[in-house]
Amino acid sequence: MAETRPAATVKPATSVQAKKSSNMISWIAPLLCILTGYMLWRFGLGNPDNFEKPGGGGFWPDHHGPKAQLYNMYLGGIVVPVLIGTFLTAVVFAIERALTISKATGTGNNADFVRKVQYHLANKNVDAALAECDKQKGSVGNVMKAGLHRYKEMISNNELDTEQKIAAIQKEVEEATALELPMLEKNLVFLSTIATVATLIGLFGTVLGMIRSFAALGADAGGGAAAGALSQGIAEALYNTALGIGTSALAIIFYNMFTTRIDNITYGIDESGFTLTQSFASLYK
Predict the structure, then answer these.
(1) Nearest to 186 by CA among 29, 16, 10, 6
(2) What does pTM read for this prediction?
(3) Taking the CB of the first residue and of the last residue of the chain, which one, N or C, has fewer CB atoms within 10 A?
């Protein structure tokens, strides 16, 4: 009886290993930033030496006569430290994303890198193409390297036909891409959330400040003096709006900048996958 040969199968494992990292620090950072914001508000801006008539009060201050315009921010109320913390959070994650995406971009231009790999593949020099990936040191290089390892393996594979080999290479590229993209997009949710929420928090603080101001006006029938106090109270409350709008604008700028850079990297990854499959299809029919 003739021996039955098992059907050829493609190895499912990818040569790129998942990057294991905890996201706990990403949730601790906003809490630390808000705590730092409170410390700056309470003991920095709210230092009694910064006011001509310091008074009591922890959450709603009772200081009067700030010695500089900056110290008026302290009189905006307890929402101010939350906004300062939100601003610091946006800065922290902007720096973190800038470092991560800069590393993922790698060295040199992605288009030049892909052209060099195409040249080596056209000359059937896969090892030289792998060396280019090691020089690139970015996400595009990592995905291309994973695909090249499977590319090299498929050259010597005599069990699969050309279409199956191309499918195996494409699958390897897709698996490597699926491991790279989450790392690029990680923590962007904090910037997008801050971009939306910061303005609302600022408006909330302003409304609270105006409620206090009008309540004080209703309790004091002092005429012109009361109207002056009302104007001052509204001005202090508007610091919340200014902080909220400024923080939101900063978060939007950074978010759009990072998503644009990620899109460029993603385009390079897609081009890499297309290069590998087209090269194999043309050279190893």
Answers:
(1) 29
(2) 0.83
(3) N
